[in-house]
Write a structure and sequence with these properties.
single chain, alpha/beta, 434 Repressor (Amino-terminal Domain), Rossmann fold, 5 domains, five-stranded parallel beta sheet, about 55% helix, binds adenosine-5'-triphosphate, binds magnesium ion
Length: about 550
């Protein structure tokens, strides 16, 4: 079975490991593999034969004993009964994987009433949608509610971020990927998902559905119809009536009325003030509320309508501006917008004003970097930022410094799950940057650099996917999947991107095969081949070979 991918018998591997009283880490160490690879094996994924051999050896079994025969094909057609294989894969996965909720690095403030409300509503309805304008705290509230509810859902709470997805047909793919459910030949993926989730009690969080409203509604409806114990918590900026859906508007954080004279003790009872103080302290360790600044902080929070994102942007500035200066500058901006009157702005406009304000305070290179970083979908590493954002008007040596200052200003979030830092823009901030990038005339250049970087990454990964570091590279591709996807989409719309798109898809076929994204892989390969030229011999040959391998695995 050398050089081939075979399907791990997840149940056996886990049972044997538990008999030996080993953790997944211990088995990984003994087999010379990463823990993630063991998780994959226990989830019943396809792995390279030498990986399976290493696991078998460590467990004192033969490779055949830890391999499932054949492929996971089920002849197509209607759903007769829950498919035990799909359900089995999910069971193994939910048993072996830690909760899949993203971990927030910043503290969560207040929202006691809102959390109770969400939980209560979610016990009465199976599809609850949190709505509200950008930055009002929908995602954060959904995440906190899901974390609190984890005990109630024995099969787990699952978080799927949809903001970077642009093709509505791909919603089921993203959900299946998150849940580790493999696509099956000749069957709609939604049907396989229903079969896998049918007996399960789980909560699915679908975050940022605004641009995929119809697709999300239809998909949610299918899932809920077929899975009686499933609940869905969605977030989106707009409200749309979907049968059986209960939409609930996330209110702003409670903020004090600046007309009332309140003591510091009273003021800190307000969530908006708490958030301001917390974030101000992150920026400036010594920041405290004093008799002098307390009423000004209250005024800023009130001015910003208690919108968490706007408050974070303002608070991040306390390092260089006194609270009074922040308040005065914001006031100027609001006067401008309301023609000097005391008119109240709609919340979207308040946030827009807070972002404009924050933007205007940046240096030109910082702005330029913000624009360019917006091409990334789903985050980036420093190395990628250096390759993609440097160029005309921006030196590669400056990327780290400018990036650090955007982090300091709360415009870029940083996370470091496995040691290597990864950066990300909140969606509202990314969209703001994208608009500016289009206007700057640099969009095409930056997108091309983005494309080149990820084609390079996929080609490097391709060579590694058959070697000992397979696990590391699969993980890397998975982490960058939103970017890879964005590049594939862009390459299809740009005349100059066709060859790079072909190279990218040709480099990714094995990744699609291992993950069981057979139809999705074939769809991409067929699309790039259709737009290719005969002269691109090597890439075409590889893409054709990959499409053949995926078709074979699909039983075609
Ligand atoms: N209760 C809270 N405690 C601490 N921080 C919060 C809270 N609510 C929101 N935030 C912070 O405010 C910012 C915006 O929140 P969030 O991303 O949840 O907004 P959103 O409504 O989902 O926005 P979008 O529509 O752009 O997706 C984030 O940085 C988030 O961490
Ligand atoms: Mg959100």
């Amino acid at each position: 079975m050398d050089g081939r991918f075979v399907r791990a018998d997840g149940e056996t591997i886990r049972r044997r490991r538990q008999e030996l009283f080993w953790t997944q880490e211990q088995l990984a160490e003994k087999a010379g593999l990463r823990k993630r690879t063991i998780e994959r094996a226990e989830a019943g994924e396809h792995l390279q034969s030498h990986t399976i051999r290493a696991i078998a050896q460590a467990l004192g079994l033969s490779p055949a004993e830890v391999t499932l025969p054949g492929r996971s094909s089920t002849p197509g057609g209607a759903r007769a009964s829950p498919d035990p294989e799909a359900a089995g894969a999910l069971k193994a996965l939910t048993a072996s994987r830690p909760p899949t909720l993203p971990v927030s690095v910043t503290s969560f403030i207040g929202r006691t009433r809102e959390l109770a409300e969400v939980k209560q509503r979610l016990s009465a309805t199976r599809l609850l949608t949190l709505t509200g304008p950008g930055g009002c705290g929908k995602t954060r509230l959904a995440l906190q509610a899901a974390t609190d509810l984890a005990d109630k859902f024995v099969d787990g709470v699952w978080f799927v971020e949809l903001s970077t997805l642009s093709d509505p047909r791909l919603v089921p793919y993203l959900v299946a990927t998150a849940l580790g459910v493999r696509e099956e030949p000749n069957r709609p993926l939604a049907v396989t998902l229903v079969d896998a989730l049918h007996p399960r009690r789980l909560l699915l969080v679908l975050d940022s559905c605004e641009h995929l409203i119809a697709a999300c509604a239809e998909f949610s409806h299918t899932l809920l119809h077929g899975c009686p114990q499933l609940r869905i918590l969605a977030t989106r900026r707009e409200v749309l009536g979907v049968a059986g859906e209960l939409a609930w508007r996330v209110p702003p954080l409670a903020s004090p009325d600046p007309q009332r004279l309140l003591s510091i003790e009273d003021l800190v009872q307000y969530e908006a003030v708490q958030l301001f103080v917390e974030r101000a302290r992150t920026a400036l360790l010594t920041f405290t509320l004093t008799n002098r600044n307390a009423s000004v902080v209250a005024q800023v929070c009130y001015r910003l309508d208690g919108i968490p994102l706007a408050i974070e942007l303002a608070a991040a500035r306390v390092k260089v501006l006194a609270v009074e200066q922040i308040a005065a500058r914001l006031d100027d901006r609001f006067h401008l917008l309301t023609g000097g009157g005391r008119m109240v702005l709609p919340r979207q406009q308040t946030l827009q004003a807070a972002m404009d304000w924050s933007y205007d305070l940046l240096s030109e290179p910082e702005r330029r970097l913000w624009h360019r970083l917006s091409v990334f979908a789903g985050g980036w590493t420093l190395e990628a930022a250096e390759a993609v954002c440097a160029g005309v008007g921006f030196d590669v040596a400056d990327v780290l410094d400018r990036l650090t200052s955007l982090v300091d200003k709360s415009l870029v979030n940083v996370e470091a799950p496995d040691g290597e830092a990864r950066y990300r823009l909140l969606e509202t901030i990314r969209q703001y940057g994208l608009k500016k990038l289009e206007r700057s005339g640099q969009a095409a250049v930056v997108r091309r650099q983005h494309l080149q970087w990820f084609v390079g990454l996929a080609e490097r990964a391709e060579a590694e996917l058959t070697g000992p570091d397979q696990g590391i590279w699969l993980e890397r591709l998975e982490t960058e999947y939103d970017n890879l996807w964005a590049v594939l989409e862009w390459s299809q719309t740009e005349a100059q991107g066709a060859e790079a798109g072909l190279r990218l898809a040709a480099a990714l076929w094995r990744f699609w095969l291992v993950h069981g994204h057979l139809r999705e892989g074939r769809r991409w390969l067929e699309a790039v081949l259709a737009g290719s030229r005969v002269a691109w011999v090597a890439a075409r040959a590889k893409a054709l070979y990959g499409a053949g391998a995926l078709a074979e695995d699909q039983g075609d």
